[in-house]
Structures are given as structure tokens and as C-alpha cells.
Amino acid sequence: MADYAWGAQDISAPARTELPEVAAVAGLVLEDVQTGFVGAVVRVEKSGGLHVMVLEDRKLRHRTFRLGHGFLLDGHPVRVTAPVKTAPAGPSRTASGSVRVEGARARTAKASRIWVEGKHDAELVEKVWGDDLRHEGIVVEPLHGIDDLEGAIRAFSPGPGRRLGILVDHLLPGTKESRIAEQAMAQRGAAGSVLIVGHPYVDVWQAVKPATLGLAAWPVVPRNQDWKTGILAGLGWPHADPADVARGWKRILGSVTTYADVEPSLLGRVEEVIDFLTAPRTSG
After folding, report:
1. How many CB atoms lie within 10 A of CB 116?
2. pTM as predicted
3. Distance between CA 61 and CA 227 in Å, rounded?
4. Are strands 76-81 and 68-73 parallel, antiparallel or unpaired?
5. Beta-sheet strand order (sheet of 194-198)
6. For residue 13, what is the DSSP state?
7. How far is CA 139 from CA 1, 41, 113, 237, 279, in A?
8. At 26, phi and psi to the nearest 5?
9. What are the per-10-residue average pLDDT scores of the chain (284 residues)?
């Protein structure tokens, strides 16, 4: 005889099954069952005391979801949990690879400065070397072009306690940039107080290793096309207007987590500038 469970039952509550748990690590692709939205995890944060995650789809649209049930991973239901933070085995390090000074406060900004060509250059330098620069009290400022670099240096009035380190895009022999740099360094007061260095790339975007974005190489852009627009088009990303360019750069910058994601030709030049600005003053 069958063993039926007679009696009052709540048939609205199905039997609970334990789902596999997955941590919401960056890059994990999930599908929200209710809306059908598919996207990769961008970040996990707390909102109103609850853990939520932000997903980004292939069109760069963002949506926020509460962690837990209601998601598919590779077509299978899962329960999404917050990633577990593990204590580092050794000394904590900054994104640039330097040993982090725990409890250190940012120093008051010194008179010395790092100048870069544009906003994107400044954001990349800040992303990798920001902790180091705050510890040293060095500020990064975008020039928004170097056509009047000589005049900008003259207005800054560099000296032994007021040094300038300048990072220039596409600084190669025979280029317009190299001629501007030579003229700027020839003026009075520049020697010993100004250092101009550069990387070989048309734009600082190329200083991010393509492998960081899962690419074998950056797309080749025809000479008659705007470089950033051409890069985005070559990647198959939206590129119709400046807003698309800004979102494209945000996505590129978001892929950078440490110095290992940046080309050595930029790493060496920025380290050279920092050493120049933090070197003790010499007398004589």
C-alpha cells in the first residue's frame, strides 16, 4: 500500500532544493531569470545594508541585482554569494607593486607636479600609482595638449624645490612632440628641475596591454580616421559620439588592476618621473 502523507499541507511552497553557490567575482556572466538580462559582474557593493551586484551586458548597459537566488550560470540555476576576501599572505602592495604603508595618511601636496597630456593619461597614472603619489604628496595634472609646453613651464617657474615631471604621448625622434620637448627643455630654469619623458604610443590607451582586454593586439586604425573612434570600431564597441568614447575608456581603464596590466614602456617612464620628483635636493 502506498504511503501517502495525508493531512493539511501548504502546496504553495514547493520543496526547497539546495542550489550550487557561486561567488560574484568580476567577469562572471549571469542571467537574471525574471528579466532575462545577461551580463558580466562589474562589481559587488553594499546598498541599504544588502549586498548587490552590478551586471554589464554586451551593449555596456548596467543593472543592479540583489545577491541570492534567481540567476542562471551556463543555463543552470545558482545561488550568487558575495566574494570572500582573503587576507594577503605577505605584505600588502599597491597597484604599482610597492609595499603598502598601512595607516599612512596622504601627505600635503608638494609644489612639484606630474603633468600628462590629457584626462585619460591622468586617470591611468592615478589607477596604478595613486597610492604611491598620495604618500609622496605629488599631484598629477592634465595639460590638455602640449602645443604651448614651453609657455606652461615658464608660467610654472620650476626650481630645485618646485620640480616638474612631464609625460608625453608619442615621444619619438623626429616627431612634433620631440621638437616641442627639446624647445621646452632649452629654456632657462628647465635643466635639473624639469624632466620630460614619453612613451611611443599614439594615445595612452595603447599603454594598456591588449591581453588585459582579451585581445591579441590593438586594432589598426587608418590614418584618416580619428584614433579613439577607430579603436572602438575595431573592437566592435559603440563609437558614435563622445559619450561612447568615454564609456569605451571607462571599460578599458576598468580592466587595469595592477602594473602588470600596463606596458613596460609606460611603467618605466612613470617610475623615472616619480624618482626624479622625490630625489633629495642637492646643494651647489
Report:
1. 26
2. 0.61
3. 24
4. antiparallel
5. 139-142, 113-116, 164-168, 194-198
6. S
7. 83, 32, 5, 33, 16
8. -60, 135
9. 48 63 90 90 81 86 90 91 70 53 49 89 90 84 90 90 90 90 91 92 92 91 90 94 94 89 91 88 52
